[in-house]
Amino acid sequence: MFNYRFSRRVLFILFLLLFSGIRVFGYEIFYPSEKNYTTTYDYGLFVGKARSSESITINNEKVFVASNGAFAHSVKLREGDNRVFIRSNYSTKVYNICKKKEVTKVQPEFKEVVEHVVLVNKDNVPLRSAPEDIGFNIISYLFKDTRVIINGEKGNYYRVFLSKDKFAWILKSDIIEFVNADKTPASFINTESQKYKNASIQTISFTKNLPYTVEDGEKEILFRVYNPELSENSVYTLNILKPRNYFYNVTLKDGLYTFKVSEVPKNLEDLTVVIDAGHGGTEGGAVGCLGDREKDINLRIALELQNILKEKGVNVIMTRECDGTISLKDRVKLAKENDADIFISIHLNSIGNIHLNRFQNRGTSVYYFNKNSKELATILEKSIPKSAGTQRDGVKTASLAVIRPANYVGVLIETAYMINPLDSLLYSQEDFAKNVAKGILDGIKSFISE
Question: From the CA atom positions of the chain, what is the Rg in Å?
Fold first, then answer.
């Protein structure tokens, strides 16, 4: 016998379950992770995924949703408290963002100090052209026990006297006072040069460790050593010719500088390539519209690249092959210890304090720092989009720790934008990692053959 009352109850329960399912499985916001936060940015960025049946608005502005549900939208923030309403035809979420005014730092004044000799207290100390922590103003990396003359200070920096026409800057924390100093100026001993098949080595020797600078010119590298204790015009210059594709290395031991310029091998079988999967472990990187983590996609691309390069006989060194935490310093150290010819760091992009434009903030960009890496960056910015179907986003310079050393040809690739719904249609595809890897291989082959 048909139980009408029981059937109504079942239908009611099914309706509640269906309605509950819609509420639970409605749109998701993956970034920001907190509904209440404070920032100094001018824009608040919202990244998420919607159901196919949802229409999304943020503060009453209609939001573009890609065919896979991905969406991203930025909101202009005013100073103070901001309420952001994200609505769909199923639910509403409210975010509270407090925008604080960025504190303007008071610039310290320059002060003269009594001119005297000090010692550099460790290796790899940046010598800068200006008293501020900007990668582009580094003119050399000094070695421990290098003697420098200081004669001024500004904030956390001492001014270094190199010659009559040249000054530099060094962090106060990177020097120690020269107790019981030997006042005798350093003496020049000799200079020598040697040529090999794929490298040239020049040495210049002194009785003490002295400061130096490197200037990478169009056809040659100028290596200069300064001895201001001897004379304000005491500058020793080595003019070193460079091949088309090159990298260089500077070492110092007991006053002996060795400057080695190496040519990038012209055969894949002779290449050593370090593949750096960006982020990893506790460093997740950017969060994508679909909830993807940058570190995971970086690793997938890196592993595909490892396979495809090894098949061609390339000696491949990986900074990580799993989801582990590795410091930027250790990534660089690994490359130097393995005498890398090329260093490729793989990432996916986000945006900083700008308004998101889904048509402009998308595609593949390639970053370099040193002049010797520009050509490879230029080639890869073309070869990867051709293979992976991404938009070209330009060749750019940036002072990034892993590509700053000149010990190898170093590039950092932003293969696509994690926060762009249009790019998410590409990087979420199964063959994306393989296509990016193929584009990198094609770029390397083109680079070494020219």
Answer: 28
Q: Please, what are the domains in the chain?
A: 13-99 (2.60.40.10), 110-177 (2.30.30.40), 188-263 (2.60.40.790), 268-449 (3.40.630.40)
Read off φ and ψ for residue 254, nearest 5 degrees: 50, 45
As a whole number, the mean pLDDT across the chain is: 93
Pull the structure tokens for residue 229.
């204790």
DSSP 263-319: EPPSSGGG-EEEEEE-SBTTB---B-TTS-BHHHHHHHHHHHHHHHHHHTT-EEEES
Q: Which residues pair with 45 in a beta bridge?
A: 74
Which residues make beta-bridge pairs with 316? 273
Q: Give yes or no for residue 419 having a pLDDT over 60.
A: yes
Q: How confident is the model at residue 24 (pLDDT cuts 50, 70, 90)?
A: very low
DSSP strand pairing (272-277 vs 315-318): parallel
User: Cβ distance 152 to 223 under 8 Å?
Assistant: no
Scored b (16 or more CB within 10 A) or e, 272-282 reads bbbbbbbbbee
> Looking at the predicted structure, is the pLDDT value of residue 15 above 70?
no
